[in-house]
C-alpha cells in the first residue's frame, strides 16, 4: 500500500518539471476502450496503450477513481503499465480514496499540470459514476483535472479505460441499470439508469462494455433509442477498441466488438419492439470507420470472404437464450455461413420474474448488404450488416410439462 501523502508527493514533485514542456500543436489523440477483465498477459492491448502514449518511458496517468479500493487498484495498474515499458504514475483523485479531499485534488493545479503534460491516461474499472463524480464539480462543470485530460487528448495523447473506464467514453453511459431483460421490459430512467458520461469519443457514438459475456447488446438498443444515438459500439471482455484521430476503430484482443446501427431502425410504442437494426461483429484485427461506416477485415480474413452459394450450415438456426454468453455472435456467424435466410433467438424470464408472460423474439436476417469473412488460421468469423428485428412475445405458462 502507498501512503496517501506519498501518492500526492510522487505525482507532483516528480512530474512538475515535465509540465514545462513546449506547447504541442492542437491535434486529436486516440482512445483505447476496453470491455473489462483485461488480463495481465494481453500484451497486444497493454503495448498499444504504451505505444500511443509515446513508446518506452511514456508517462501515463493512472486513475483508479472507479475502484472501491483506489490505492490498491492504482498501485497494481502502475506496476502493470511499467512492466510494459511505461513510466506510469497514480493520480489521487477518487471518491473512495481515504485521507484525501477528492474535490480539492481534482482542482489542484500542479496535479492537473502533471496529467496535462503526460502522454496518456488510464481509467480503472469499478463504478463509472465515481469517475464522473470525481472529475466534475457539484454544479456539473469541469474540474481542472478533467480539462487537463481533454487537453492531453486533443494534443495527441491516449485516453484508455477498462469496464467503467470504457463506459465514460461516450456522452451518455449506463448508471445503475436493471438486468438486460428487465430493461427491455420496463425501459430506462434518464438520470438514474442512464447518466452523462465524459464523451471522449464524441456525442454521436454510444459505448457499452462487458458486451458479449453479459448479453448487453440488447440493453444498448433502448438506451440508444431513448437518447437519439444512431451508432453504438459494444466491446467484450479482454478486448479493446482502438479509436484513432481519423475515427478508425480497430479491434484488438481476445474476442471482438459489435457495431449497432440504428440509422434505418423503426421503433413502435408499447413493449420494446424495433425493426431494421443493423448489427456487425468485428473480430480481432478488423476495422470500422465511424465517419464512413466502412468495414475492413483483418489481414488473415482478407481472402476469406464467404460465398453464399457454398454455405457450411444447412439446418434451421435457433437459440432459446439469445442473451447468453456470446450467443448473439455465435448465431450471427452461423447465419452468415448458412443456407438459411434467418436465425431466431429468444429471451424469456423466470416464472417468478417481472412480467413473466412477456418475452422477446430476436430475428436475424441476411440482406443484400450482409457480408461474412472467415479466418483461415483461427476459423473465426467477421459479420457485417445483418438485420435484426425484435418483437415482444407472449410466454404461456406453464412453459413446459414433465413427460
Automatic annotation (TrEMBL):
Signal peptide: 1-21
Entry keyword set: Carboxypeptidase, Hydrolase, Protease, Serine protease, Signal
Superkingdom: Bacteria
EC number: 3.4.15.6
Keyword Acetylation included in the entry's annotation: no
Pfam family, one: Peptidase_S51
InterPro entries: Class_I_gatase-like, Peptidase_S51, Peptidase_S51_cyanophycinase
Family annotation (CDD domains): GAT1_cyanophycinase
Catalytic activity: [L-4-(L-arginin-2-N-yl)aspartate](n) + H2O = [L-4-(L-arginin-2-N-yl)aspartate](n-1) + L-4-(L-arginin-2-N-yl)aspartate
GO MF term (any one): peptidyl-dipeptidase activity
Family of this protein: Belongs to the peptidase S51 family.
Stated role: Exopeptidase that catalyzes the hydrolytic cleavage of multi-L-arginyl-poly-L-aspartic acid (cyanophycin; a water-insoluble reserve polymer) into aspartate-arginine dipeptides.
NCBIfam families linked to this entry: cyanophycinase
Protein name: Cyanophycinase
Source organism per UniProt: Massilia jejuensis
